[in-house]
Amino acid sequence: xxxxxxxxxxxxxxxxxxxxxxxxxxxxxxxxxxxxxxxxxxxxxxxxxxxxxxxxxxxxxxxxxxxxxxxxxxxxxxxxxxxxxxxxxxxxxxxxxxxxxxxxxxxxxxxxxxxxxxxxxxxxxxxxxxxxxxxxxxxxxxxxxxxxxxxxxxxxxxxxxxxxxxxxxxxxxxxxxxxxxxxxxxxxxxxxxxxxxxxxxxxxxxxxxxxxxxxxxxxxxxxxxxxxxxxxxxxxxxxxxxxxxxxxxxxxxxxxxxxxxxxxxxxxxxxxxxxxxxxxxxxxxxxxxxxxxxxxxxxxxxxxxxxxxxxxxxxxxxxxxxxxxxxxxxxxxxxxxxxxxxxxxxxxxxxxxxxxxxxxxxxxxxxxxxxxxxxxxxxxxxxxxxxxxxxxxxxxxxxxxxxxxxxxxxxxxxxxxxxxxxxxxxxxxxxxxxxxxxxxxxxxxxxxxxxxxxxxxxxxxxxxxxxxxxxxxxxxxxxxxxxxxxxx
Length: 488
Ligand code: 5AD
Ligand code: SF4
Hints:
Layout: H1 19-39, E1 44-49, H2 53-68, E2 72-73, E3 81-86, H3 91-110, E4 115-120, H4 126-135, E5 141-143, H5 151-160, E6 165-167, E7 188-192, E8 194-195, H6 206-210, E9 214-215, H7 218-230, E10 235-239, H8 256-264, E11 271-275, H9 284-292, E12 299-301, H10 309-314, H11 321-334, E13 339-346, H12 353-366, E14 370-375, H13 393-416, E15 422-430, E16 437-442, E17 447-451, E18 469-477, E19 481-486
Parallel strand pairs: 1-2, 1-3, 3-4, 4-5, 5-6, 7-10, 10-11, 12-13, 13-14, 17-19
Antiparallel strand pairs: 8-9, 15-16, 15-18, 16-17, 18-19
Helix pairs in contact: 1-5, 8-9, 11-12, 12-13
The structure holds 5'-deoxyadenosine and iron/sulfur cluster.
Iron/sulfur cluster is lined by residues 51-52, 54-55, 87-89, 121, 206, 209-210.
């Protein structure tokens, strides 16, 4: 894969990061100002995110840079600078990007000065970059997951040269801190605690596109959260592909549970969430910390993937059905009101009806609060893609529909159990469809739409509550969300 570092355009640029990127931000700002003068208006930028929370956080970093160099963020793709932060976990994620690029290409024909950039997981695949170079010549800039911190430098490069700038790294050991970030919400934020993945589940492309596991230094994480709290954040979501193995590769190893204990001490921080947990690494120490904590949310996302021990082995998951069920029991014994959610794949190579029924059995035993269900997608380069016994589509579809029905039925029943309860809600925004309501989330991550009218009949949605935690009575459960009334 290409590892061109052709972006070294000035000898004066500092070698050290992040100083180097601040130097390029200044340069980029000047280039943007030049264009502003030529067009007689501000330049606009649009960041489109595909994929997971990790990508959503990366997009906040992209926005932080674009903002700093003078672009105005807009919601439309008819902008001066458009960047797609891509995902490649399933084939349809890739297809979506190609489809959207076609439309973007026709827009660019009318506005040749427009800049189009692509980054993220999909760009780490060689065949993708080849296809872009061949069929999508109008793209200005392509970079991957390992060098996202170089965005400012790459923008300067793309703004100053005519040909497509491609900069993809095979991997990195570098973690560059302290670059600008433009948060979506003022009161909650994602925080990366580690990058990459070492698990190599046989269906999964992530280890190939996000590289080997690297944990951030706990001191840097704490410092970042303290700064966020000082800036008004009350809830953090700790992000990593497998947070339970956090800290193993640090010079002075730290466990994820120890990190959580330290984060808990941060004054002003009210809620701590994390994802994703791998069942094989979920320690008793973590369960204990969660049970004792006042801040860690009562929610565990614990991907099952399959309920069949035979399939789990082929998936390289390192646990079997019984171990998974025992883990859930242990969690519930220690934290009785914990919400458990999961990811499940249907149609993994070699999956028989019996295997599928094992998955259904786990779903019925665990009774998940919600579950993301996926049809297996063949990702070239992964071991599962080479397996011979791929399952016929019709059979997969039938099983998938059956699973989805069961998952939804159980989730609705579970949600109903909280009807009538009064619980703390972090208020996030005015309801998108009804301006008299506010929308927020419970500790278990469920969405609540509530009115402030019970206290004062004329009361409209009280926007001063956004970012605060208030008590709400859950009057009615509507399947996967609640309608409620403000109590305090
Ligand atoms: N096909 C279908 N689903 C997949 N996932 C990961 N790889 C694949 C694949 N090849 C699902 C897993 C994972 C979630 C993020 O995406 O369930 O937990
Ligand atoms: Fe998609 Fe995985 Fe990359 Fe997230 S880490 S964007 S899920 S491929």
